[in-house]
Amino acid sequence: MPSLGRLHLVTDTRPGRDPLAVVRAALGVAGPDLVVQVRVEDAATDREAYDLAGRIVALCAPYRATCLVNDRLHVALAVRADGGHVGADDLPVDAARRVLGPDAVLGATAREPVAARAAVDAGAGYLGVGPCHHTSTKDGLPDPIGPAGIRAVVDAVDVPVIAIGGVTAATVPALRAAGAYGVAVVGALSTAADPARATAELLRELTC
Are 87 and 56 in contact (CB under 8 A)? Predict the structure, then answer.
């Protein structure tokens, strides 16, 4: 199983975004410390998801960066990604583990300690926990849990906790102090004027 990077870039495929350009910029700075999670809009076809994921797997390979596919595990298998990530409305974690196999990277979404422990017991190798702060990149999210919510999950499990939701370089120190292993970002890179510089700023806060 690949080692897990601390910076997770979740692709932003909303109109007007260029996820491939952002991935290229982030890889050029973070290299193997980057995990790219390929997430597409619900309306995207499997072919569209397959095409995007395949291109990102190819981009990640020279850098030995980890590439995961969110939700669509059949696409993860088809493009030979390193694994996948499942949310609350996707396949159950134990089923996802059976689909991907024992050696794949498998992340699951959790918000509080009970669900977090259940996900780990079912086979999750890391947890995406949040939303930490308010975010506009995904609709229908519950209220933010803040660093205190991150700490509650960290204290309940023994796998890496990746904080997600409205994360910026400025909020990373508090999340790391709460025990987060790393962070996942969407808008912090996809809306940045200079994604490479934004990546460097996030990495600096994650490793200092």
Answer: no
Distance CA 104, CA 99 (A): 10
* Residue 90 CB-half CA count within 13 A: 24
Residue 72 lies in a domain: yes
CA dihedral (142, 67, 11, 206) in degrees, to 10, reads 70
pLDDT, tens digit, 9 for 90 and up, residues 111-165: 999 999 999 999 999 999 999 987 665 656 678 899 999 999 999 999 999 999 9
Structure tokens at 177: 């102090």
Tokens of 59: 């981009």
Residue indicated by tokens 């260029």: 18
Q: How distant, in Å, are the alpha carbons of 38, 105, 135, 195, 196 from that of 20?
A: 10, 22, 22, 11, 13
Instruction: Quote the pTM value.
Output: 0.94
- Per-residue model confidence as pLDDT tens digits over 145-158: 999 999 999 999 99
Residue of 174, 147, 177, 150 whose CA lies nearest to 161 = 150
Is 135 within the bounds of a domain?
A: yes
CATH at residue 181: 3.20.20.70
Please check if 39 is assigned to a binding site. yes
Give the total number of structural domains in the chain: 1
> Does the annotation list 112 as a binding residue?
no
**Residue 137 marked in a binding site:** yes
69 annotated among ligand-binding-site residues: no
24 is in an annotated binding site: no
Structural domain that includes position 174? 7-207
